[in-house]
Design a protein that fits this description.
Layout (H helix, E strand, L loop, with lengths): L12 E5 L6 E2 L2 E2 L3 H15 L4 E5 L16 H10 L5 E3 L6 H9 L4 E4 L7 H4 L3 H11 L3 E4 L21 E3 L1 H15 L5 E5 L4 H11 L5 E4 L1 H5 L9 E3 L3 E3 L5 E4 L1 H12 L3 E5 L12 H11 L5 E5 L1 H13 L7 E2 L4 H7 L17
Parallel strand pairs: 1-4, 1-7, 4-6, 5-6, 7-8, 9-10, 9-14, 10-11, 14-15, 15-16
Antiparallel strand pairs: 2-3, 12-13
Amino acid sequence: MQTVREVKVKNQVVLVRTDFNVPIKDGKIVSDFRLRAALPTIKYLHAEGAKKIVLISHLGRPAGKRVPELSLQIVAKRLQKLLPEFPVNFIDDVSGPDVEAAFKRLPQGGILLLENLRFYSGEEANSDFFINEIIDSVHPDLFVQEGFAVTHRAHASTVAITNHLPSVAGLLLDKEITTLSHVLKSPKRPLLLILGGAKVTDKQSLIAHFAKFADQIAIGGKIAADGYTTKDPKIYVADDFDQDATGAKLDIGPLSTAHILELAKNSQTVIWNGPLGKIEDPAYTSASTALAELLGESPNITSIICGGDTVGFIETLLVDQPQLRFSLLSTGGGATLEFLSGASLPGLAKLDVSAYT
């Protein structure tokens, strides 16, 4: 990939595909982790003299319809708090005369956030017409892909757009891909993959891929509680559990927790995807908390944390334990899993200005 550091930014109008798909509850943003993750690229563009910066993103799954509670206006307000030195403007559309007027009003270095891309069916249809309407309204010179979490989707803002604009990776996307690629190609060993969560179908390809080169795989969460079995000697499956009054297995037990912690202590690289227990209930966060604290207090371990639930759990933990440090808290979600599984991500294919014709 070519990155934004390798191209001219000064006096350019830059269109940035961000991932502002933040969790919202009762009309409030629960975590602004994804917003803060995009700040270095926005600040870099401004510092390098970008003429104007236009941000595009999706929020939730409105299925091509305008859903007021999924408007990005709430994101614009939080982004303004995170960027007090720059005025952040918002327009409740993505193309047309109103958007063009809002764009023209932007001062030098101004920031404009457009409305939720998924309010429009053309986004998920990977429509050239849809993306050209946006381009015709904000007149960008350069496209920067910063939304790693959507690069496994063939959408208008990940694929079609790269057919019409010189396209490069943002700083966050570059960091994530570089870190994950290094782990896949030349990890520090021993390499341990820890999997939790609820759906084994989401993880089966990852298990199969890592079984070829990981030194150890540990499985907890509901996957283990539901009785996942394997004959592979390098795969450890948790086998004792903390249960509620009905007998439901809601966290891995002390023996399994101790075993997984021991595996982690003896590893140089740990990839963790999926909580080890039902973290929505504070009573069943013990195993996940213990693992997070171990990794966060072990600078000698390259720690890759991925998956929305796991990263969200870590973010909550960091409020009370800001001293914890991890090599990468990935914003990629499903894209991270597909990348680690060896899949080709369509949104990364043409992030190179030489590919633009």
